[in-house]
Amino acid sequence: MPFPASPDTDAPSPAPAPGTTGAGPSPAPSSLDFTAIDFETANRFIGSPCAVGLVRVRGGVVVEERSAYMRPPRTRASFDPGNVRIHGITERTVADHPVFDELWPRIEDWILADDADELVVAHNAAFDMGVIRAACAETGTRHAPLAYACSLALARRGYDLPSYALPRAAEAAGVPLERHHDALEDARACAGIVVDLVRRSGAGTVGALLAGCGLSVRRLAPRLP
């Protein structure tokens, strides 16, 4: 079974990445490739994913999107009221969806389908990489090594804002964010922030942008079952 498509992936041609049209002095670089990811979690345990959003950027434009609900690992399946208030996802929402360890291999295959060294970007990447690490450990599920970067760290160096939370950074990038804590919406915003920062800096790639900010690509070590 293929990884579920988001409702917005039926367009016949690639859609511009958020932040790549309208404002800004120049188009996004043709070498700008990465995948943005966002997880929502069911409870205080970081390895309790209940939703994921993914946005694939090639040449500075969005070429594909995916999103899915999932049941958290069976041992961590409760939904805390505080988390539900944030994202609106309940046990009932995910009841008919695959459990994390059934869905993760398809998510990973999709991320790495074009490039085994695909760069993954998230806003506060330590959280999203922590979700993968903890959920895989909890379920005994393997994951491949992942190269990743943090749009929050980049935003702190590229913008002058009172807060670098996703809504503020997205606004600075000219990216619409109507439903914060919707996993796909948040992944789109993350993608748009990175595209905007690369374009502003003239860096050309996320790696070059990181280097210019005194940062580097980080690595999520693989986990073997």
UniProtKB/TrEMBL annotation:
Cellular component aspect of the GO annotation: cytosol
Disordered as annotated region, ranges: 1-31
Residue ranges annotated for the Exonuclease domain, each copy included: 33-203
Residues making up the signal peptide according to the UniProt record: none
InterPro entries, sorted: Ribonucl_H, RNaseH-like_sf, RNaseH_sf
GO molecular function: 3'-5' exonuclease activity; nucleic acid binding
Superkingdom of origin: Bacteria
Pfam families in alphabetical order: RNase_T
UniProt xrefs under PANTHER family: DNA POLYMERASE III SUBUNIT EPSILON, EXONUCLEASE
Entry protein name: Exonuclease domain-containing protein
